[in-house]
Here is the input.
Amino acid sequence: MTAGAETLGPRLGAGREAEVYEWGAGAVVKLYRPGFGGHRAEAAALTALADHGVAPALIDVVELDGRTGLVLERLSGVDMLTMLRRQPWRVLRLGRTLATAQLAVHRVPAPAELPDLRRILAARIEDAALPPRLRSFASSVLDELPDGNRLCHGDYHPGNVLVAADRIAVIDWTNAARGVAEADHARTLLLLWWADPDSDTPLVSRGVIAAGRSALARRYARVYRRGGPQPVRPVKSWLTVQIAARLSEGIDNERPKLLGLLDRALYSG
Here is the structure.
């Protein structure tokens, strides 16, 4: 479908890859910036998730002035990270919800057109500014890990989960991939335990995050472990791989901490 820019309503938000606008009653359009192709993975993931109740419905794909847009169901509510900042006493309940929603996603078979997660991680490790011994170590760990056919979000964390009165919805599927559920779970563990807050996060919010992240991560991990695949496959190994891949993102504040974690993993055998 091709539409004119005059069909856009007010802009609701913006990110590195896309902007979100109102689109009539009950819908928004996520309009991708030129040069970004994340709409392909996002559309495939949302199509696979139709009728599962854990993501916004994909209504249409449009072209606006040469930019691809995904028309999505408009959801009420706030993201879980915002809720944690406003109501930190709900941390344990939200940790359970975070795990339960991810488990629901991981029960869904991934579309064949999604990229393979192991290949994505291998490329990121290759691109990361790593000492050769750590790159070799992380690559060798990845070589021993299995392929999978589960739908993986690729960047699952509280900021990408909307909480409404009667529904939980996972958003932002541009990094969706096909892989092993534990690999996606390990990425979330990494983000919960060690990712730095955004640079524009207020100091007070940083304090709340630091105080609550341990409780959130522990509850999330416990609930996921109880409901996840059996037998449990090597999450520790996937975590090592995800740490190495994370270093390709060039987040300077995280680098010393992540390199230290890789060193410990290497020498712990």
